């Protein structure tokens, strides 16, 4: 798989817009809110023993990290929709695999990212990243093809693609 494919983040338009909205809010009103909290806490006096000040500074750090994360994701994003006719495994497809060729030991999941596909907690679907060991091993495979990937313990796991279809939420 090319370096571009492993560093590209696949987004639906809805997910892109949602993440862009979050970034816009955090970069403007969110920063102003945290700055005001810090200023109010600073007015309370001794900063060494000021819990409100330290909490506001920590909130600022978390927020700035999220801004950097969102900026990076949106910069690397490739916007598209789930494929309407999936004949090979790709971002936005729902995939069923059989472990070690055992048709009774299967797993069905969406290749992508819950956040990046715009899925919320009400959607009860397993999601694997195309950058994960399993995701990168099966990317581009067709029904009936096999792939191997290394488990976290280093063991090689063989899977067979049983079914590939477009994901619809």
TrEMBL record:
User: What's the source species for this entry?
Assistant: Friedmanniella luteola
**Signal sequence bounds:** none
As for family, the record states: Belongs to the GreA/GreB family.
- Does the record carry Zinc as a key word? no
**Lineage summary:** Bacteria, Bacillati, Actinomycetota, Actinomycetes, Propionibacteriales
Q: List this protein's GO terms for biological process.
A: DNA-templated transcription elongation; regulation of DNA-templated transcription elongation
Q: Where are the transmembrane segments?
A: none
- GO molecular function annotations of the record: DNA binding; RNA polymerase binding; translation elongation factor activity
Q: Where is this region: Disordered?
A: 43-63, 78-101
- Which Pfam families does this UniProt record tie to the protein? GreA_GreB (PF01272), GreA_GreB_N (PF03449)
- SUPFAM superfamilies for the chain: FKBP-like, GreA transcript cleavage protein, N-terminal domain
Q: Which NCBIfam families match?
A: greA, PRK00226.1-3
Q: Tell me what this protein is called.
A: Transcription elongation factor GreA
Presence of keyword ATP-binding: no
Gene3D superfamilies the record matches: Transcription elongation factor, GreA/GreB, C-terminal domain (3.10.50.30), Transcription elongation factor, GreA/GreB, N-terminal domain (1.10.287.180)
Q: Which UniProt keywords apply?
A: DNA-binding, Elongation factor, Protein biosynthesis, Transcription, Transcription regulation
InterPro entries, sorted = GreA/GreB_C_sf, TF_GreA/GreB_CS, Tscrpt_elong_fac_GreA, Tscrpt_elong_fac_GreA/B, Tscrpt_elong_fac_GreA/B_C, Tscrpt_elong_fac_GreA/B_fam, Tscrpt_elong_fac_GreA/B_N, Tscrpt_elong_fac_GreA/B_N_sf
Looking at the record, the residues that make up the Transcription elongation factor GreA/GreB C-terminal domain are: 86-165
Its biological function?
Answer: Necessary for efficient RNA polymerase transcription elongation past template-encoded arresting sites. The arresting sites in DNA have the property of trapping a certain fraction of elongating RNA polymerases that pass through, resulting in locked ternary complexes. Cleavage of the nascent transcript by cleavage factors such as GreA or GreB allows the resumption of elongation from the new 3'terminus. GreA releases sequences of 2 to 3 nucleotides.
All residue ranges annotated as the Transcription elongation factor GreA/GreB N-terminal domain in the record? 9-79
